[in-house]
Design goal:
Elements (H helix, E strand, L loop, with lengths): L8 H4 L10 E4 L2 E4 L1 H11 L10 H23 L12 H11 L5 H24 L17 H14 L16 H21 L7 H9 L23 E6 L8 E8 L3 E7 L5 E7 L3 E5 L8
Parallel strand pairs: 2-6
Antiparallel strand pairs: 1-2, 3-4, 3-7, 4-5, 5-6
Helix pairs in contact: 3-6
């Protein structure tokens, strides 16, 4: 487990400056951003895949992925109750300001709260009146949670589990019975899955690096698309960083792969081990180190 605020020496020791968590390491490949992590887990472990094969259902998965991250989550974060102990900690507030680029002072959050509540209530209403309107158990009408449910439920799940985030006179089981029933089913399925999986092993940062160093890469090295609009070349030194949050922290290394969906660079750990850092193209910027102008 990593601390909720910087510094995160275990991550830095991998040669990674990316400041958001989680990250996932599979062998010597390190994956950042939950969007890319989910796609890679689906691809690398197909026996446990939860994604749909039907194009219409896959479209719903992708649209939910973009909607929850790009539209819902930013407003949801504004609903963290100002009285929470973490928000009383100046270190945490400063860390969140570095992360988001906006004020996390209690009075500023309180000022933004009514507008955020209106936005989040609309998100609850959208789900209640469309994808859940017919009383289905799961979004894709599956027998158990699918990737569409994971992509769609997480901001609602996060908010509903945070005491004081949602005022009951606006957002509760009374106003949105189908969505809260969906949350109850998901919590039950999640508890059963955790029980079946057993207790995960806990490693120190050094133990994790040692294991990673002894393993191969999880997938073949990606190509660099000659037709990519950035016109970058394999082996070129580049920097990569997110543009939506955590954008003050850059990773730099040799360009290994550049496709429509991801950028891959080579990074070096503090032990001198070479890893590959994967980032999605969506909401990430790639810039040649020797150029002053950014390339999206």
């Amino acid at each position: 487990m990593q601390p909720p605020t910087l510094p995160r020496p275990d991550v830095k020791a991998l040669g990674v400056s990316y400041r958001r968590i989680p990250i996932v390491a599979i062998g010597k490949d390190i994956y950042s951003d939950s969007r890319l992590i989910l796609h890679k887990l689906e691809k690398l472990f197909p026996d446990g895949a939860l994604g749909a094969s039907d194009p219409d259902q896959r479209a719903v998965e992708r649209l939910l992925e973009k909607w929850t991250i790009d539209s819902v989550f930013g407003r949801a974060a504004t609903l963290i109750p100002p009285e929470m102990p973490l928000l009383q900690d100046p270190k945490f507030a400063a860390d969140r300001e570095d992360f988001s680029g906006r004020s996390w002072k209690a009075n500023d959050l309180a000022r933004l709260r009514p507008e955020a509540l209106a936005h989040i209530r609309d998100a609850f209403q959208l789900m209640e009146s469309t994808l859940l309107a017919d009383g289905r158990d799961w979004i894709s009408k599956t027998s158990k949670p699918s990737l569409a449910d994971i992509e769609g439920i997480w901001p609602f799940h996060w908010l509903s589990g945070m005491k004081g985030a949602l005022p009951h006179d606006l957002i509760s089981k009374v106003q949105f019975p189908k969505l809260f029933s969906w949350l109850d089913r998901f919590n039950e399925a999640l508890a059963n899955a955790k029980k079946a999986a057993g207790k995960p092993a806990t490693l120190s940062g050094q133990e994790a690096r040692t294991r990673m160093s002894a393993m191969d890469f999880a997938e073949p090295e990606a190509m660099v698309d000659d037709n990519d609009p950035l016109r970058l070349t394999k082996g070129q030194k580049v920097r990569v960083w997110p543009t939506d949050s955590g954008f003050r922290h850059y990773d730099q290394g040799e360009l290994v792969g550049l496709t429509e969906t991801e950028v891959v660079i080579r990074v070096e750990s503090q032990d001198g081990i070479l890893f590959r850092l994967h980032s999605p193209r969506t909401n990430f910027r790639v810039q040649a180190v020797d150029q002053g102008q950014s390339r999206l």
